[in-house]
Design brief:
The complex is a heterodimer. Helices cover 24% and strands 29% of the residues of chain A. By secondary structure, chain A is α+β, with helices and mostly antiparallel strands. Chain A is globular. Chain B is built from six helices and no strands. The chains are: A alpha+beta, B mainly alpha.
Amino acid sequence: MKTELFHLHALSALHVGTGQAVGTVDLPIARAKATNLPLVPGSALKGVLRDEFAGNADQALLFGPERINDADSAHAGAVAFGDAHLLLLPVRSLAGVMAWATCPFVLGRYAADARRAGKAGLPPVPPTVRPGTVAVATSSELILHSGKVVFDDLDLDADTGAADAWAQHFATALFADDADSANQFPAHFALLSDADFGFLTDTGTEIRARIRINDETGTVAKGALWWEENLPAESVLWGVLGIGPGRVRNAPCSEAQTADKLRAGVGHGKLLQIGGKATVGRGLVRFLTAGGAR
Amino acid sequence: MSDRQSRAQRMAKPALACVKSAAASNLAKDYKPRAMAFPTMVLQSGLAQAVGFLAAKSGKDGKGKAYQQYFDDLAKVTGLPNSEALLQEALRADLPRYRLLTRDVLDAASWLKRFCQSLVNDEGSRNGD
């Protein structure tokens, strides 16, 4: 099985939830148990992509049959979908409007996945960033006159130029087909300490209040106020796809042919809707495949 | 037997006592909406702003009294002596302490919210009364 890296770039707030919760917000987003970092489960992505192949003759080959009627027609899909992990969190910045933030811990896991998927030439992952400081690119627009960077509730000292290599990597990987965005990206890239980034992923997601109006009174219906957590628009996640040969009986299909069929249906930059609350504008993402970014 | 407890246990016990006491008082009607909304306020505005808001709205009369009670209860469940101590801590803390205090206050506020949901109805009476 060959593995490929993919990116998801949120174009609107993204709510892939857990159904319900007893904690701070009523409808929180899904998070990894061990890291508490937001994720999009592989099953969510698989379901959406399967839907993109509705009516396509290759749907069962790639995703498995919709229904299994007997043992002879049972087979697994050729594509395995890993969870998509948060890579870049958009955070409010006093200078430069917004930053795409990440940290060495996340970069380390990303780089390891990328290497396993055959990607060479990645910049070195800095072993650490000191808490209270932030590495930014030479062209950064995030720095105030005082040399400070202010993200959300945090005052940080800027280390200018220390994030140039990764800023350029992401500009190319995410915006290969959009020169304006690629040029602007490095000025808004920020590498935080693991501690500061963890804090922002915990407290810096987007919380939106929702209400239901009582038609008779025109005011909020009793008890009909709730809070939903979202990953903000512009969030970037990464994950791994495993692509194997087709498993349909008496219809051999090589790994390379499977990969071609998948790309033919969902090309680089394909717009998808993932997660809940679609009718109120959530979950519009760009699906970026490794093949397209090369 | 060890006397160690999980974070959840350490907070849930005083939170239950605080909400039971509030539910039995005439403050419950104003206490509950504050308890329901406060955790989100910390996430939306940051700890210092949210605690500052509580300090500004607390008082000796009417809603202010309920807010003061909630503020004191929040401090207690967080593990601090009173609301003034929580306000001072939120304003004075360095960044590592501020991160921890934010998490502690969010956890404490979540317990107060949860017990209010189960023990206090919207009219301010105990559920089932």
